[in-house]
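Extended Data, record VOC family protein
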Amino acid sequence: MNITIHQSYLPQDDPDAALAFYRDALGFEVRNDVGYNGMRWITVGPKGQPDTSIVLHPPAADPGITDEEKRVITEMMAKGTYAAVNLATDDLDGLFEKLQAGDVEVVQEPTDQPYGIRDCAFRDPAGNMIRIQQTK
């Protein structure tokens, strides 16, 4: 049996800012951009990896979410504690310089971690933690 990660979901509260970060800053390609009832779901992914995507979705689009849950989600997104994704690159320092030169929030500069990886961290426009590690 072969199992792969096909899609991951990250909330976004500003579709245009999300596009600017994932498409323009990270260089991901846009695979789908769907609007419904004033909301947008944007699917992006790394070029050359068509089977791996991130769906940027409205954070409280599920009709089963209560107003209190929406409030908590909004607060957690603002603090950057609601969602995260780990990415990898073969040029961590180059990507860090490119992102730092743009309008992104740096959380951690490239660092050699005691558990054996070198990584850095940013927040996307919605507050999601984006950690990027150096591939070997």
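Summary. The chain has one domain: 7-59+72-134.
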